[in-house]
Design goal:
6-stranded mixed beta sheet, 11 helices, MBL fold metallo-hydrolase, NDM-1-like, Metallo-B-lactamas, ST1585_MBL-fold
């Protein structure tokens, strides 16, 4: 299939074709003794992901595990659908997100408030998963991939309080979710992802430091794809966070409201990102992945919550 890319080490990148785009959200299949899907994508992407798994020889009873880095709908919106397609799969998530997969009503209500009518087009509806099938991870945990291979889970909040990074013991791949930001392979841009209500700069920088200390060989971004320059990329992640926070703080100190703060930060960061000077579709996709209003809103929420920041 043209949306499946082998990455070596029995790892396959799956373009979930979120909202009909290519290169928005990646799921990853680790095809070992106990096949594991990392990230489901959205609910509307679930059939695309199922078809990709079928093309790789994974049948309805073959998938052992589904694990999500966090429960935002672009990463975990398809969990309920995928759980239905693969009735033997265990669903793994951090303990702070587990109840929302079992009963998504509050999560969906909150998402509807943020996205309005766009919700149905972008994400669809997260269906509930039987709580008996959900395994809640603590701050560390392990997922058995078979043959002595494991995914170790490492709590990495800052982007979201229910976020984990996942390290493959065999390949050294680290699934970073959104904790290291959003990467656009066509342009090499790396931009923070700092949405409300959970963003916290110190915690986010601590998560990046945790990733660095794990010594990964490669970073697998959910948005989007593999990156081999690990140390330099994680340094950039921390730098971009600091730049966006400093600019947002300056806007707040000047008394700007949210719309004007967004305009200022967007203008002063524009030259950092080739995507925004590329074709309209690339720019639109980058803004959808890591929108300035969401990022600035999340940073302002943190600044107002932590006055000494």
């Amino acid at each position: 299939m043209d949306n499946v890319t082998p990455l070596g080490g029995d790892v396959y990148e799956i373009d979930t074709r979120m909202a009909g785009y290519s290169g928005i959200t990646a799921g990853y299949l680790i095809l070992g003794d106990r096949p594991c899907l990392v990230e489901t994508g959205t609910s509307t992407s679930a059939p695309v992901v199922r078809d990709a798994l079928t093309s790789l020889g994974v049948g309805a009873e073959d998938l052992a595990t589904v694990v999500v880095t966090h429960i935002h709908l672009d990463h975990a919106g398809g969990v309920g659908d995928i759980a239905g397609f693969y009735p033997s799969a265990e669903i793994v998530v951090h303990e702070k997100g587990a109840r929302h997969l079992a009963d998504p009503s509050r999560l969906m209500k909150s998402a509807r408030r943020v996205w309005g009518d766009k919700l149905d087009v972008l994400f669809g509806t997260l269906s509930p998963t039987d709580s008996a099938r959900i395994r809640a991870l603590g701050d560390t945990g392990e997922i058995d991939l078979g043959g002595g291979r494991t995914l170790s889970s490492h709590y990495s909040p800052g982007h979201a309080k229910h976020h984990v990074g996942l390290l493959d013991s065999r390949t050294g791949d680290l699934y970073v979710g959104d904790a290291a930001g959003v990467y656009l392979p066509e342009t090499g841009d790396l931009r923070p992802a700092t949405p409300p209500p959970d963003f916290d700069l110190d915690v986010a920088l601590g998560s990046i430091a945790t990733f660095s200390a794990l010594g990964p060989q490669r970073l697998l971004f959910s948005h989007y794809g593999p990156v081999g320059e690990v140390a330099a990329t994680l340094e950039r992640s921390a730098e971009e966070l600091q730049i966006w926070v400093d600019l947002t703080k300056r806007a707040r100190d000047e008394g700007l409201d949210l719309d004007h703060a967004v305009a200022m930060v967007r203008d002063r960061t524009r030259e950092r990102y080739s995507a925004l000077r590329a074709d309209d579709e690339t720019a639109e996709r980058f803004e959808l992945l890591s929108g300035a209003p969401s990022n600035v809103g999340g940073i302002l929420h943190w600044l107002n919550r932590v006055p000494e920041a």
